[in-house]
Specification:
Protein name: Nucleoside-diphosphate-sugar epimerase
Helix content: 40-55%
Order of helices and strands: EHEEHEHEHEEHEEEHEEHEHHHH
Pfam family, one: Epimerase
InterPro entries: Epimerase_deHydtase, NAD(P)-bd_dom_sf
Strand order of the largest sheet: 3-2-1-4-5-6-11
Shape: globular
Organism: Micromonospora matsumotoense
Radius of gyration: 19 Å
Length: 318
Amino acid sequence: MSLHVIVGAGPVGTATARHLAEQGEQVRLVTRRGSGPVDPAIERVAADAAADADRLTALTKGAVALYNCANPAYHRWATDWPPLAAALLTTAGRTGAVLATVGCLYGYGPVDAPMTEDTPLAATGTKGRVRNRMWTDALAAHRAGRARITEVRGSDYLGADGTSLPMLMLPKVLAGQRVLLPVNWDAPHTWTYIGDVVRTLVAAATDERAWGRAWHVPSNPAVSTRELAGRAAALADAPTPRLIRMPYPLLWLGGVTDPFARELRETAHQFARPFVMDSTRATETLGVTPTPLDEALATTVRTLAVSRRTPAATGAGR
């Protein structure tokens, strides 16, 4: 049994903690408020990783891996990510734990071909540049022998609550409601199942061949957002989805008062044209294969159904 330290209790951090606990590993989950799943096999610790690298170092001593599953609010990436990323990298260097970071595809910027791990990190937007600086700093530390690092990158998530496009769209689809989003509904798009993110993250953290490199999470062949919505509706026996494309000017105007909508301006290209990720390398090297799309969708539908029932059943709000 080895110690694994996870920073962040969002969908990926929580799923990673549960996965490792089920494997019989020692799991320590670190958040500012000590939140996370209530499980006797998961130790929850309250600590501010960004503000106290010494505390994080003490919590990580003896760990085989340190997982960066944090996710600051969209509009605070430029402010919150640099100190947190620096503290995580410092801790990895001090303790010898492999720093395994959950990344994204923002760093590539607009693309005209399927993305591979060799696609240039050409983003010009704030969020993309923040993520690219994090990766550049970590890679430099690895090459200098100061730390061992790896990163896994996925597309929009299926399988957990959150703010990815499926999680914004599917509740309305399953309820038979109209969906208005700034999306080209017929452009092919890669979707990444959160369970596959977890399996790839743990595999990369514990396989020496993965260190010093970024990996794309194995994901199914791209399908359009319209097809995704239709398949989810069929699984839930819901009506045919009513999908309407929001004009970009309306998204821009929404961003005047809504910070989340404002941040979507930078990534609007991902849903305006084909957005396809190639994950062949991770499957061939790490042995991770994607969960079949209908299976991932079925899990997502069940998760959303439970989420809708829980507040009414318990009398508690979100």
